[in-house]
């Protein structure tokens, strides 16, 4: 689907750009087409979304028209909006995102909020020491550094590209010295770095948990663009949980917590795995997301 059927002046002003882009997005089935058009135009023209409607008569330069047209065509090819703009909001902060790194989801804010509550309301060591397993763009680690004083976070990922991006985000948003970025698979960097046994106050992870059936039915823009290894958790979507649950008690202090995000229907299975392990207290907490899905599981080491 191409633009240009109405002549060279079809994107002469901002009103036309907004109308055409939202209409094209609607035609191809993009959800919230007007919302996406607003975000795209505000990014390209460096305007607040509210300012778009105060400048509908603004004449676009040739350069602006070309940039808008290229961005619209990318979106029509199912490239995620966040990869086009390079930004995604999370916990009230503006994070850089890029292809090859998972786009942060609003659901993960539930995980972060519950962890922040526990770190603020319970007596832990000073400084607090926690781990973010699979940090991606760094949203969990950076949010904790933003909202919790006196905390050191070990942010681990198997993707060097993710770690580079997370480090950029940290330098933009918080005191980056409070986050130690480590390359490797799950707990391996901690073992190699000789982190003391039972020295951590908390371990947080949003592991890949999409199962095979759900992965096949993901929207094309997700399935074809976002990194599979950050999404796919095996046939049942549960591949990473046993590994994390089994190894976490070695590093957690007595009373330290393990906080995990999961997919729809997975919370009871995660709870069962935790109870079977035998190193956690029985008062396991489960929290729902905004849609009523049991999304976050928190357990405490005996």
Written overview of the protein:
This protein has a 7-stranded mixed sheet, with helices on both faces. It has 2 domains: 14-77; 88-300, Rossmann fold. Residues 4-9 have low confidence and may be disordered. The protein contains 13 helices and 9 strands. α1 runs parallel beside α4 (62-76) and α2 packs antiparallel against α4. β1 and β2 form a beta hairpin. The chain has helices at residues 14-27, 33-45, 49-52, 62-76, 81-85, 107-121, 139-147, 160-173, 188-192, 212-216, 220-223, 240-251, 267-277, and strands at residues 87-90, 93-96, 128-133, 151-157, 179-183, 200-205, 252-261, 285-288, 294-300. The chain is an alpha/beta fold.
In short:
This protein has about 300 residues and is an alpha/beta fold. It is about 40% helix and about 20% strand. Residues about 5-10 have low confidence and may be disordered.
Helices and strands, with pairings:
Blueprint: H1 14-27, H2 33-45, H3 49-52, H4 62-76, H5 81-85, E1 87-90, E2 93-96, H6 107-121, E3 128-133, H7 139-147, E4 151-157, H8 160-173, E5 179-183, H9 188-192, E6 200-205, H10 212-216, H11 220-223, H12 240-251, E7 252-261, H13 267-277, E8 285-288, E9 294-300
Sum up the structure in keywords:
302 residues; Rossmann fold; 13 helices
- The assigned CATH architecture of the largest domain is 3-Layer(aba) Sandwich
CATH fold label of the largest domain: Rossmann fold
Q: What's the Cα radius of gyration?
A: 22 Å
Major beta sheet summary:
7 strands, mixed
Q: What structural category arises from helix and sheet content?
A: alpha/beta
| Overall pLDDT level | 92
Tally of strands: 9
Listing every helix as H and every strand as E from the N terminus to the C terminus, the arrangement reads: HHHHHEEHEHEHEHEHHHEHEE
Q: Give the full name of the CATH homologous superfamily of the largest domain.
A: Vaccinia Virus protein VP39
Helical percentage: 40-55%
